[in-house]
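Incident review: delayed structure delivery

Summary: a single-chain prediction request sat in the queue longer than the usual turnaround. Root cause was a stuck worker, restarted by the on-call engineer. No data loss occurred. The affected request and its eventual output are reproduced below so the record is complete for anyone auditing the incident later.

Affected input:
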Amino acid sequence: MQYFHKSVLLEEAVNGLDVKKDGLYVDATGGAGGHSKEIQRRLGHKGRLVIIDRDPDAVEVLMNNFKKFESVTVVRENFCDIHEVLDSLEIEKIDGVLMDLGVSSFQLDNTERGFCYKEDAALDMRMEKDGVSARDVVNEYSLPELVKIFRDYGEERFASQIAKNIERRRKKSLIKTTQELVQIIESSIPAAARRRGGNPSKRVFQAIRIEVNKELDSLKLGLNACFERLNSGGRLCVITFHSLEDSLVKKSFCRFVGGCICPADFPICSCGREVLAEIVTKRAITPCEEETRNNKRSRSAVLRIIKKI
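Output delivered after worker restart:
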């Protein structure tokens, strides 16, 4: 199986981990292994790397690519279950975690996975290749549920009209393919609106994908769990690709930092809350012009880094 993917913000993300030769690190979204390969290259013979991915196709490739490295362990799991992963490996604390969120180029380009709105395929979008699929969401969710998903996860202005047209169509026959859904979306949006603001199918497909894979729920749990397992001085590096993810990461990082919450006019602190972390990236890191030119999918990438203290 071939698995092509350009790792976004490769140097910036791995530099952000501040890899120590004898450290223990987790790539929580292994994908094609680009970030993992660079982390492993920087480790010494006493270092260790755990690679996690929920996609069975990715895990198969990762296991093959890293089988010669005794210090690398590949696990098929959702990163929100990192506690269980580390416990099973008898690992208590780690020195850094990298999370590269969103969908990989392999998943997008592999037509049969049904992630891409540009090619015709069966509606699927399951990262784990089991459970509720995009077809189930489109054909079985209620009208209010669809509206909420399109608004909350896709920030789609015409969520209500799209959902109504989906409901009308599925009463006649099941919606089975990506292009059937694309046609419904396009017919639901006024021509003037379609000419600006990007392809509306991108927003709706993103919304359905997030729902199918429970991405934001997993991210909330995963951020908390990853930060909890960090050693003092350990770092958590997160690459996001849309505003919903980035907002969640920013809020979580602020909460991790902790510190005094007393009113500004209090002469001395009475809450006793300690500062638990330091945000390394005062301003988010984004791809340089050369990277966005060579990899268009990197354009929306945002890297944030926090250090536990």
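Verification: The chain has a mean pLDDT of 93.
Action items: add queue-age alerting; document worker restart procedure.
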